[in-house]
Specification:
Order of helices and strands: EHEHEHEHHEHEHEHEHEHHEH
Strand content: 15-25%
Helix content: 40-55%
Structural class: alpha/beta
Number of helices: 12
């Protein structure tokens, strides 16, 4: 895997730690659990999008762009990290926020990631849930062009083949760490939404020849849609790396039984997952991605899925979003 071929802006704190989580693993019924701390990537609080943004911003700078244009849900972790990357490199940042959950709560719409977006200097525009976000991106990019700017459009979650290179690199990094620790990984578990993280991992593992399965816990789409999106992007990423035939359909597995009532909507099982991670390992998860992934991990462990197995939970970050859910979490964390 020769990533130096691709433009890259180096700013992530890498490698991220791979830490044992024995108390949480014991609470899950005896799972030999490790956590890949991609909440520690360093950019405005970190998170998984930072790895993707190294390659996306690298390409933007190589093209002479002066404005990053992106989109996400109101409490988007991706938007926060994109705004931070723009600030770091002196770029403007235009953001479209979709009111995807329909929440009218003040903390959801004004605190958490939204507060940080504003602090970082991003220009925010809000559109209704269900809007054509690709059309909104192009409209905003054209407005930048009309005033003489040079936009670089980043899809939601940074999830295209360029962004997914960040997680192909993470797959390589994780295997190096595991080898140094003498650790045989039986399963990687992570949240899967816009598909880039899981697709990059699958492509990277396939390209380096590591036979480690990746289970994505879905946070939005039904399983056929999610697996289809991940597989397509994993193939595109492997092709970009020069190995178009390495990714097989059976390497892409998503479990979308833990979405609950919908994207960004919190249920009691998510709250219990947040509490368990915090109170066994001091680990802060978010309600939208890592919290639902942990909800799934807890449920699957209770079914005996990971008994006597070594599991790496890839922590995608997002704890900043907790402050946007104060009204929902208040009184439920006792």
């Amino acid at each position: 895997m020769h990533l130096a071929r691709f433009p890259r802006a180096h700013f992530a704190h890498l490698p991220t730690p791979l830490e044992a989580a024995p108390r949480l693993g014991e609470a899950l019924g005896g799972v030999n659990l490790f956590v890949k701390r991609d909440d520690c990537t360093g950019l405005a609080g970190g998170g998984n999008k930072t790895r993707k943004l190294e390659f996306l911003v690298g390409e933007a700078l190589a093209r002479g762009a002066d404005t990053l244009v992106t989109q996400g849900a109101v409490q988007s972790n991706h938007v926060r990290q994109t705004a931070a990357a723009a600030a770091r490199f002196g770029l403007a940042c235009e953001v479209i926020l979709e009111t995807r959950t329909g929440s009218k709560a003040e903390d959801y719409n004004e605190n958490g990631n939204v507060l940080l977006d504003r602090l970082l200097g991003a220009a925010l525009r809000t559109v209704p849930g269900g809007s054509d976000m690709n059309a909104a991106l192009e409209e905003t990019a054209q407005a930048v062009r009309d005033r003489g700017g040079k936009p670089y459009v980043i899809p939601g979650g940074g999830s295209n083949a360029i962004g997914a290179l960040g997680y192909a690199d993470c797959a390589r990094e994780l295997m190096v760490q595991a080898d140094a620790m003498g650790l045989k990984i039986d399963q990687i578990v992570t949240a899967t939404g816009s598909a880039g993280t899981q697709a990059g991992l699958v492509a990277g593992l396939a390209v380096v020849g590591a036979d480690v399965p990746v289970l994505g816990i879905g946070v939005r789409a039904p399983r056929p849609t999610q697996e289809g999106n991940v597989f397509k992007l994993a193939q595109e990423t492997a092709a970009l790396l020069g190995h178009p035939d390495r990714v097989a359909r059976e390497q892409v597995v998503a479990d979308c039984d833990y979405v609950g009532e919908g994207y960004g909507l919190v249920d009691q099982a998510v709250i219990e997952a947040l509490k368990l991670a915090a109170r066994t390992e001091g680990l802060l998860l978010d309600p939208v991605y890592s919290g639902k992934a942990m909800k799934g991990l807890i449920a699957l462990a209770a079914q005996g899925r990971f008994e006597c197995r070594t599991v790496v939970f890839l922590h995608t970050g997002g704890a900043q979003g907790l402050f946007g859910y104060q009204s929902e979490l208040e009184g439920k964390l006792a």
